[in-house]
Amino acid sequence: MTTESQGNAYDDIAFTSAAADRALDAGDGIVRLAPAWVPREFCTPGRRIRLHPDDYFPFGPDRGGVDERWLASAIRADNGPLTGPFEGLSLVVEPDGSLVPFDEFVDHHGARLIGERLWQGYGRWPMYSKFFDNLMPLPFHFHHSDEHAALVGKVGKPEAYYYSPHMNNTLGEQPISFLGLQPEVTQAQLKERLERFALGGDNRITDLARGYRTQLGTGWDIPWGVLHAPGSICTYEPQAASDVVCMCESWSTNREVPAELIWKDVPEDRVGDFDFIIELLNWEANVAPEFVTERFMAPWETAASAAFEGQAVERWVVYKSEAFSGSELTVKPGATVTVTDTDAYGLIVVQGFGSYGAHEVEAATVIRFGDLSHDELYVSEAAATAGVKVTNRSTVQDLVVLKHFGPGNQALAAESAR
């Protein structure tokens, strides 16, 4: 691995049908994924995503630091002209250590992997999750709806946050998130702050926002068009498979945000039109007086959890979006349980070690850039519905797994309807 690889952390990346079949069959419908590290030029790494301390700036001087790890991702990051060919894309690890691009892996297996419902409805794996880990808050920004993203040939991006205690030994420099707008804010007031962007310095747009202190073990639902500036927390973020964005704050991490990030995903004939930026917002959701009631998420135990008889517990941690969902599975020391789901999913182990189906798993402590790990898997729908045997081999610590599902999770829908 060299810096000149332009975003390639790994060698020996290639797709063949034989390799894709071998990987899925060897794991009995469950495949191992390589870590997918993503830099952002406007961010400062919070150093909590378990990358080696010397490896947070592996892409060169103009790329910024690594503050994201993408999980079960069948898309590539949209990081400008220097973006590497596999940046943000998950890679399936074959038994011999060679790597298969996850997007081609999904295309090859189709319904056999993600299930007939999602394959017929989307023709792709339509979500991914990530750890986002910035030392300071992100700039105030939003993501487009499907309709608005289609104007630039992309898809929309709702997302959600879960503040995992296992990923937050420290809360960073400002663990306060700005989400939505104060109910009395007008569109004229917001436009005036947007127009300040061109003047340089801080446009102070978050003066118009609502701030919330971080509560570990909880989270937020962030639909399309809702302004947000996540605090300095390492967040677990299930989201739609898109990297579309509109940056609205001119100052972040003690430096100016490039002005072109306002217009990154705006049609060419609307660049410079701040009224159009306001049109892209979900205004009612931003100024809703019941914002906390509508968007805050406290975990609740899944219906299937009762079958574990105290040997494990599973809780829904992301559950308000139709586009994705997420749960947290905790298996007690020395316990073995069978985990059954209705849908395919990706997973990341954040504490402990043991086995997950045919795979050995262990939470990472320190990963060198370019090294593989045993902490991330993708479970096909067939394996999920058949049930996966999960064993915690520790005698003292829990095995903790975060699971991310695609749209319309059938178990969640059934439980929510009760």
Task: Please describe what this structure looks like.
The chain is α+β, with helices and mostly antiparallel strands and 418 residues long. It has eleven helices and 28 strands. The chain has helices at 17-26, 102-109, 111-114, 116-122, 146-149, 187-195, 274-280, 283-286, 291-295, 381-386, 410-416, and strands at residues 30-34, 36-40, 65-71, 91-93, 99-101, 127-133, 141-142, 159-162, 176-181, 209-213, 219-222, 228-229, 234-236, 239-240, 246-247, 251-252, 255-256, 296-297, 300-301, 312-318, 325-331, 336-339, 345-351, 353-356, 359-362, 376-379, 388-392, 399-405. The strands form seven sheets. It has a nine-stranded antiparallel sheet. Strands 2, 3, 6, 13 and 14 form a five-stranded antiparallel sheet that branches. A hairpin with a 2-residue loop joins strand 16 and strand 17. The longest helix is centred in the first third of the chain and has 10 residues, at 17-26. The chain starts with 16 loop residues before the first helix and ends with a helix. Residues 1-6 have low confidence and may be disordered.
Summarize the structure.
The protein is of the alpha+beta class and 418 residues long. The chain has helices spanning 17-26, 102-109, 111-114, 116-122, 146-149, 187-195, 274-280, 283-286, 291-295, 381-386, 410-416; strands spanning 30-34, 36-40, 65-71, 91-93, 99-101, 127-133, 141-142, 159-162, 176-181, 209-213, 219-222, 228-229, 234-236, 239-240, 246-247, 251-252, 255-256, 296-297, 300-301, 312-318, 325-331, 336-339, 345-351, 353-356, 359-362, 376-379, 388-392, 399-405.
